[in-house]
Amino acid sequence: MSFFRCALTTSTILAVTGLSVTGAQAAASSATNARSGKSFTHKAAISGSHLKSRAAGRVATDNTAPAMSGQSVAAPAPTGRTLVSLSPSQGLPEVVTVSALRRPIRADDVGSSVTVVTEEQIATQQRRTLPDILARQPGLNVVRSGGFGGTTSIFMRGANANDVKVRIDGMDINDGSSASNAFDAGQFVTDGIGSIEILRGPQSGLYGADAMAGVIDINTKQGQGRFKPFVRIEGGSYGTFNQAFGASGSSGRFHYNVVLSHYRMDGFHEIPRYIERYNGANRAQRRAGDRNDNRSANVKLGYDVTHNFDLGLTARLIQANYHTFTSYDQVFTPYNGDQLIRDQNTQNEAVVRGTAHLSSFDGRFDQVLGLGYMTNRRRYMQDGRYADGDPAMTDPDYYRSTRLKVDWHGTVDLRKFGTVLVGAEHFHDSINVSTDDPTEPVHTTAGMDTTAGYGQYEGNWNHILYGAANVRYDANSRYGNHVTWRVAPAIHVPNTGTIIKASAGSGFHAPSLYQLFVNQRGAGWAEEGNANLKAETMIGYDVGVEQKLLHDKLRFGATWYDNKVRNLIQSSAYVMPAAGSAWGDYIYSFGNVGHARMYGVEAFLDWKALDTLSFALNYTWTHARDTDSDALLQRRPQHKFNFNTTWSPVKDFTLSGNILYTSGWRDYPLVGENFCATCAKGHGYFTIDLTANYKINRYISVFARADNLLNRQYENPVGYLQPGRAGYGGFTLNY
């Protein structure tokens, strides 16, 4: 049974991640308002710290930037929010991005394709987990093995899930303990988040390895103003009972934001009926449900030592216990009899980062020094007994990883001649994979070091032609050296509201330590790393046009992208003859086996029909193929459409509705041809969600939401049901 346990556990991880089984830092600087020509001072945080507005004498926060309305700036924008116009009648809010150039700049002025999700959007739509909010964004496909807590992968522009780099407050948080080094968003809740920036296209020129398809940059909300505590209680379907509480504010030079949360889900059944019939499931197995218990803490602290020097500290802690009964457990019904064999997955994750920020020469030179640490501890085991009375897996498997990061970057403000950015980073990564099973001992320990340097120039000509170009050099102790680059111009056609954007760049995805060095052996099987793996490489470009009409109340646009990948890393398997065995030993490993091409279109439309009514929709068309075999890549639906509307019919009352449609895709089957990578067909689906928020008074708010209103029964991925119709409600106390 240990062989099946290992093989199926590995298959589950690889299947969901899409692998084949064959502030901190910006400047307190003076800038010129592009529309009014007036000079103003602004500050923003990049990578998780903050700056202080000398002009206003108040603490500024992440993504702060000047209003582009030609009016004076009264106060900095709150953390992680889009910059709103000073009057509701002025149209849609301006969007400021930090991740695109590592400094605050209007999204209109960068050639890269970027989406900024604000704290208000997350709260209005009542999305409590990161996968739920990312699933609605253009260019992304989110795959989750079951309900809340299940292994979750994020596919961007048709690339593999491990080609997306995820950062929180400047710290890289892709999971080194996983086989693919992909970020698992399954246990990541949205409490404490100030903004999420989604930067699409090859971004290795600024962000290095694993930013081949793009970057998701998460910024923690920063406290300011008076002491503001809150408590939120929520309950509903699938045994949901969630609590969140915290406080934010500032006192003198010190500012803080602390959020603690506990989320519980119990009773969600994830196995489709056709798989139960195929496996001959008994009554107990048909009623078995998943249970998830998540405790998280999100902390952001800062201290302004002087008017131009500040310190910052951010931390996110996750402790989760996820108990599941999956299709893979049900496969062994003949072995288990009436017994329920449940998987137990425990995760303990900590991400901590400290920053020191100094602005010199009246804001002309701005620099940030950062030190970050991440550790991830995962334990997998099983409870229950087999039909013969033997206990299931009593000896846990452990997957551990650590990452230490030291980084520095500085920005030189050349005024009308643009800005120059230079930076350097050093990473040390390590993993430890082991099991306590005395009959099949497993122990793999490995580490690697990466040192990188990068530079970027950014400027504009007459506020018509904007552009940025960067280059980066990465030196790794295991897989060699890589040079990457990116160029991204944007043209504002005068007096038309038309913006033409384009970008081109290169990226690479490094083989994980697991893929390089894993060494597991058992009776009749083995898993071996491949120390000769090369990094995957990509060349990609995109071009698009955006249009503003009706005094900026209507915006729409479309982007065409095309990416080509070489040296795809995929898992492989072969049979090695063994003495005394009629079947031989199954050997699992990894190799660079092919090429792929991903191209498509991303389109959007935002319309502020009334001061109290707005609409937003986006559409993504994706075509992703292995160009060697001409096979479709798994888990890449060709079409995705999302429509959202927000309406405030009366003061303090807000309604929001969302429709998400995803077309079919090719996938791994859980019944039938188990060795075929794409012979299963995932069926398309659409869901309708509704939310309502009402602020009774300054202290009490009540809310309710209905998810999957039409009770669509759908799988994503194949073999894993997603939650059906569900209702939730609760209240929030503020002071």
From TrEMBL:
A Pfam family in this protein? TonB_dep_Rec_b-barrel
**Record key words, sorted:** Cell outer membrane, Membrane, Receptor, Signal, TonB box, Transmembrane, Transmembrane beta strand, Transport
Main localization is: membrane
Signal peptide coordinates: 1-26
- What are its GO cellular component terms? cell outer membrane
Single GO biological process annotation from the record: siderophore transmembrane transport
Q: Which family does it belong to?
A: Belongs to the TonB-dependent receptor family.
Q: What is this protein called in UniProt? A: TonB-dependent receptor
This protein's species is Acetobacter persici
